[in-house]
Amino acid sequence: MSRIVAYYRVSTEGQGRSGLGLEAQREAVSALCQMRGWQIVAEFTEIESGKRNDRPELSAALHRAKVTGAVLVVAKLDRLSRNIAFLTALQESGTGFVAADMPEANELTVHIMAAVAQAERKAISKRTREALAAAKARGTRLGNPNGAAALLRAAKGNGAAIRAVRANAAGRAADYAPIIADIRAAGLVSLPAIAMELNARGIVTARGGSWHPSTVRNLIQRIEGAP
Question: Does domain 3-108 have CATH number 3.40.630.30?
Answer without folding.
Answer: no
